[in-house]
Design goal:
Blueprint: H1 14-18, E1 25-29, E2 35-39, H2 42-53, E3 57-62, E4 67-73, E5 76-82, E6 86-90, E7 93-99, H3 109-120, E8 125-129, H4 138-152, H5 156-164, E9 173-174, H6 175-178, H7 185-194, E10 198-199, E11 213-216
Helix pairs in contact: 2-4, 5-7
């Protein structure tokens, strides 16, 4: 769990909590100053990887704080503690995200509704994200491309340079032809996608196969705008 001066002392300790299950997921986050961020599940990690590449996200915090409120459970009003998974800034709007497998959403519906009500008091949006947000190959493609971004970010401009010399027609077609040159084609293609020069079908095509078509995007990074932050 990444903590800072804004994190209350009673925010949930992810590393301690997941030790009972035997595993915590850790990611170095470029968007958070290359600090390590811990997650409770593989699905939370997948969401964080997507947030790293989503051009609309200005920043995010994992396990940001714990809310305390009263709610009725089995006919009895009890005080409940609730820690959301993420808080992020999107275009001047604060969005709070709960990550939960779809099969558990209905079971926690009352809790989520109560949390949403509390967060709305401070003008924050509340969203529940499930595995259904990651259709087709999106999750794997984000994981692979984030690897290029975090490990070779300083080289992306150099790798993409040959693409900038091509016309629009030359940037359309099979990736092996568009990205051919002196550098490995997957380096060039990854740089093109991450810098908004190229785009491919993130849902139906698998980047690591290098067997798909690409087309020019003219600076747009909309292929990473997978999540909807509207309520």
């Amino acid at each position: 769990m990444k903590t800072d001066k804004h994190s209350p002392v009673f925010a949930r300790n992810v590393a301690r909590r997941t030790r009972r299950a035997g595993r915590a997921y850790v990611m170095c986050s470029p968007l958070n100053g290359s600090t390590d961020v811990r997650f409770e599940s593989r699905l939370e990690l997948a969401v964080a990887q997507l947030l790293e590449l989503d051009p609309r996200v200005n920043g995010y915090r994992a396990q940001p704080y714990t809310l305390s409120f009263e709610m009725e459970l089995d006919g009895v009003v009890k005080r409940r503690l609730y820690t959301p998974d993420f808080e992020l800034e999107v275009g001047g709007i604060t969005v709070v995200i709960e990550v939960k497998p779809q099969r558990w959403v209905d079971e926690h519906a009352a809790l989520f509704a109560r949390a949403q009500s509390e967060l709305l008091k401070s003008g924050k949006r509340f969203l529940v994200v499930t595995e259904q947000s990651f259709t087709g190959h999106v999750q794997r493609n984000v994981e692979v491309l984030l690897g290029f971004y975090t490990q070779a970010g300083a080289s992306l401009q150099e790798w993409a340079a040959p693409l900038l010399l091509k016309g629009t027609d030359e940037l359309s077609g099979h990736v092996s032809r568009v990205a051919e040159g002196d550098l490995p084609s997957n380096y060039v293609a990854a740089a093109g996608v991450l810098l908004g020069i190229l785009r491919f079908d993130m849902t139906n095509d698998l980047f690591e196969t290098m067997d798909f078509d690409v087309w020019p995007t003219q600076g747009a990074l909309c292929c990473f705008e997978v999540l909807s932050y509207e309520q």
